[in-house]
């Protein structure tokens, strides 16, 4: 007699089990199957709805702007979107997470607010070099983030090639990943200057200032640095098809290289969406023309995309509404709508929905070394379960009350799926309308540790 049983269309990483079931005991998955289900004290029969693994969003910025979102709201949107674990980036406004003490402080503060489980990236301050990397790994960092482009010398600094190599060597010794923002600093700065001299200030300026070549040059550096140091190297977002080909070529050579497609690169394009939205669609690297979008989908279908994420950040509208495109902040919110967007696109393209389980759960768990408790639906893992039901609707970021930002680049977009429920470690945290998880429900998840067992 199991504690809890879910019935419906069970989405594993390899198949969709019609008339499937998932049995849960003590907050963990005990077994799953198809056909006649075992007995349970409580049965959740979801008919033809999808039973999916809770998503792991590998790239979230909960604290990029002081006085805005924080973990209270980012994890609320996550719960409503079927995301049961977020990996939060280290570039907080006024607080660079670059030492073990800072990582522990952030984990404590996030733990008081979080409604879903969370992992934390670490980084370095350039003047410190790789000195603090081993201690941050012991404190529970899920990976280390660097950038080949300098957005801000303190908050989001460029890590030059020699220092990046030293950091990769240090990260390699921890067994974790080095994740890198992939834009060539010198090329981008030259192109920004050229755009400013040209007098172009509208939506076209952003793409012109950060060409595709800036990404692929940086990716070549990142992957060559990985090859030379033995480090697992992850490109945290790629907006051009050639970048995925580069990653796959290094993997064929035997190197541990991975690459991430943010959801905006899969559903938005420059000529329609950036032209319409202006600053609300300013993201680094830029959203590209439709031809690049289709190229990325071809790589996804071929298995060359490692994970999909949001790169979520809830800037205030004042930071996204300047008519001079380059003056706007970069980034957009997406946690609440990540699963519906991906499921909608997979369905419309006749691609197997197992891709969602692989790209949003199994692969992120493997990337961060979290498979002891997180990932696809599998016995022994946490019962992090998302229920998605077919329902045509237009997305309205203000309708649910769970998203902090009152704007979204996906506002008005037609969706074919809705999140009907979310479960975290066997407890329901969202019922399709209300988020029931209180602040403090979420746990700090560390690599190679079952949740809550650090």
Please provide a written account of the structure.
This protein is an alpha/beta fold and 454 residues long. The chain is 32% helix and 24% strand. It has helices at residues 70-80, 100-113, 133-139, 161-174, 185-198, 204-209, 212-229, 241-252, 263-267, 270-277, 290-302, 338-348, 354-367; strands at 2-11, 16-25, 28-34, 40-53, 55-60, 83-88, 91-92, 95-96, 117-122, 143-147, 177-181, 232-235, 257-262, 307-309, 385-394, 414-424, 427-430. Strands 5-6-9-10-11-12-13-14 form an eight-stranded parallel β-sheet. It has a seven-stranded mixed β-sheet with strand order 3-2-1-4-15-16-17. A two-stranded antiparallel ribbon has the order 7-8. Helix 2 runs parallel beside helix 3 (133-139), helix 4 packs across helix 7 (212-229) and helix 7 (212-229) packs parallel to helix 8 (241-252). The two termini are 30 Å apart. 55% of the residues are buried.
- End-to-end Cα distance, whole Å, is 30 Å
Number of strands: 17
Structural class estimated from helices and strands: alpha/beta
**Hey, roughly how much beta strand do the residues contain?**
15-25%
H/E order of the elements?
EEEEEHEEEHEHEHEHHHEHEHHHEHHEEE
Gross morphology is globular
Helix residue percentage: 25-40%
* Number of distinct helices: 13
Radius of gyration: 21 Å
Largest sheet: 8 strands, parallel
Overall average residue pLDDT: 97
User: Runs with pLDDT <50, length 5+?
Assistant: 449-454
Give the strand order of the largest sheet, numbering strands 1, 2, ... along the chain.
5-6-9-10-11-12-13-14
Provide a compact summary of the structure.
By secondary structure, the protein is of the alpha/beta class.
């Amino acid at each position: 007699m199991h504690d809890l049983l879910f019935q419906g269309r069970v989405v594993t990483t390899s198949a969709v089990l019609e008339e499937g079931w998932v049995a849960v005991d003590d907050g963990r998955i005990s077994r799953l199957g198809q056909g006649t289900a075992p007995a349970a004290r409580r049965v959740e029969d979801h008919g033809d709805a999808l039973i999916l693994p809770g998503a792991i969003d590998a790239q979230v910025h909960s604290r990029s702007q002081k006085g805005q979102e924080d973990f209270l709201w980012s994890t609320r949107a996550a719960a409503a979107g079927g995301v049961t674990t977020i990996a939060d980036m280290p570039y907080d406004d006024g607080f660079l997470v670059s030492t073990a003490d800072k990582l522990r402080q952030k984990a404590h503060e996030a733990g008081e607010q979080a409604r879903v489980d969370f992992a934390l990236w670490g980084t370095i301050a350039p003047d410190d070099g790789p000195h603090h990397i081993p201690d941050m790994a012991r404190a529970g960092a899920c990976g280390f983030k660097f950038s080949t482009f300098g957005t801000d010398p303190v908050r989001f600094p460029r890590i030059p090639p020699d220092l990046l190599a030293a950091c990769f060597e240090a990260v390699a010794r921890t067994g974790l990943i080095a994740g890198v923002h992939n834009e060539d600093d010198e090329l981008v700065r030259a192109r920004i200057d050229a755009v400013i001299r040209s007098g172009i200030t509208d939506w076209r300026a952003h793409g012109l200032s950060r060409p595709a070549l800036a990404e692929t040059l940086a990716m070549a550096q990142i992957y060559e640095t990985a090859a030379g140091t033995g480090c697992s190297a992850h490109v945290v977002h790629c907006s051009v098809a050639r970048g995925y080909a580069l990653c796959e070529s290094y993997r064929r050579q035997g190197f541990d290289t991975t690459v991430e497609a943010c959801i905006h690169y899969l559903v938005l394009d420059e000529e329609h969406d950036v032209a319409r939205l202006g600053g609300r669609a300013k993201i680094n690297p830029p959203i590209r023309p439709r031809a690049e979008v289709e190229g990325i989908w071809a790589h996804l279908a071929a298995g060359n995309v490692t994970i999909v994420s949001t790169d979520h950040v809830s800037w205030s509208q004042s930071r996204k509404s300047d008519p001079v495109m380059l003056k706007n902040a970069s980034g957009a919110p997406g946690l609440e709508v990540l699963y519906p967007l991906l499921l909608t696109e997979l369905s419309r393209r006749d691609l197997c929905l197992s891709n969602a389980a692989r790209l949003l759960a199994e692969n992120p768990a493997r990337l961060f070394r979290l498979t002891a408790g997180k990932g696809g639906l599998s016995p022994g893992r946490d019962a992090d379960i998302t229920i998605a039901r077919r329902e045509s609707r237009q997305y309205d970021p203000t309708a649910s009350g769970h998203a902090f930002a009152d704007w979204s680049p996906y506002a008005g977009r037609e969706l074919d799926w809705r999140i009907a429920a979310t479960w975290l470690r066997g407890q329901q945290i969202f019922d399709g309308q209300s988020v029931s998880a209180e602040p403090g429900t979420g746990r700090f998840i560390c690599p190679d540790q079952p949740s809550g067992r650090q």
